[in-house]
Design goal:
mainly alpha
């Protein structure tokens, strides 16, 4: 092979050429990764924002369910205590 058809060695490349080569390789790798995830149609950023919004909404709903459960249980226990106290007072001859 003569020198004109031979590709330059990575070791003898200029820094700018090497940077350009690495940038193109990184972009192609990112495109492949997005394609593997089904996000290659140019709407990847919007899709990811939507997914994050759904995850945030799910977390908020889960937190609200737990808070509501604790409030209902607390209210139930307090109501049972009040009913118990009212029954106890009437059985012991408390004020009627």
């Amino acid at each position: 092979m003569n020198d004109e058809t031979r590709q330059p060695s990575v070791l003898s490349m200029r820094q700018d050429d090497l940077d350009e080569l690495l940038t193109r390789a990184a972009e192609r790798g990112a495109e492949r990764a997005l394609a593997c995830l089904g996000l290659e149609n140019g709407h990847a950023a919007r899709d990811i924002r939507d997914l994050r919004g759904l995850i945030d909404a799910w977390r908020e709903a889960r937190r609200t369910v737990w808070q509501t459960t604790v409030k209902v249980l607390t209210t139930g226990v307090l109501a049972a205590l009040l009913v118990g106290i009212a029954i106890k007072l009437r059985l012991m001859g408390g004020p009627q």
